[in-house]
Write a structure and sequence with these properties.
single chain; alpha+beta; Nucleoside Triphosphate Pyrophosphohydrolase; four-stranded mixed β-sheet; three-stranded antiparallel β-sheet; 9 strands; globular; Idi_bact
Length: 189
């Protein structure tokens, strides 16, 4: 049976389910997850999507991206898919959500209410070859420059949310520093 995705409205309220390919053929808004894993040096783990993926194959993207199953919480799906795709198991924290829509040359339409999670991990991943062909650690400043210079080598959603990822990382680091010096305010991304 085809994987099902959770159809949502513009406020992320569940409105039903659809087959994954049918949702992408119709451009139906559905729930998604994107995971960004950083090492202790602040570098982001990128994956190169497997060439055989149904869209965006061979492009560099964030550490992991997928869809929750029907009745699965986004945080649970994020942790499950990170293990399945990259062989990485680490604590994940919700950073933000965003909505995007793009049409691919194949005619498929990605229209997602994307929940973004951050994690920390220093070990090498163990790639699932059905999901990823390669991986690398990359500095966020270098990544920003390269995404602007060579956008055709990156997934649409990575480019769409990269500035917000960097902003949230900066806020989180500032909040952690404030807490270390005794501040009572907490920054939430």
């Amino acid at each position: 049976m085809e994987d099902q995705v959770i159809l949502v409205d513009e406020h992320d309220n569940k409105v039903g389910f659809a087959g994954k390919m049918a949702a992408h053929q119709r451009g139906a808004l559905h729930r998604a997850i994107s995971i960004f894993v950083f090492d202790s040096h602040g570098r982001l783990m990128l994956q190169r999507r497997a060439a055989a993926k149904y869209h965006s194959g061979g492009l560099w993207s964030n550490t992991c991206c997928s869809h929750p199953r029907p009745n699965e919480e986004s945080a649970d799906a994020a942790r499950r898919r990170l293990r399945e795709e990259m062989g990485v198991d680490c604590e994940l924290k919700k950073a933000f959500s965003f909505v995007y829509r793009t049409k691919f040359g194949s005619g498929l339409i990605e229209h997602e209410f994307d929940h973004v999670f951050f994690g920390n991990h220093d070990d090498r991943p163990v790639l699932n070859p059905d999901e990823a062909d390669d991986w690398k650690w990359v500095d966020l400043t270098e990544l920003t420059v390269d995404v602007r210079k060579r956008p055709e080598t990156y997934s649409f959603w990575l480019a769409a949310c990269l500035d917000r990822v960097i902003s949230c990382r900066s806020l989180n680091r500032a909040g952690a520093a404030a807490q270390k010096i005794g501040s009572t305010s907490t920054l939430m991304a």
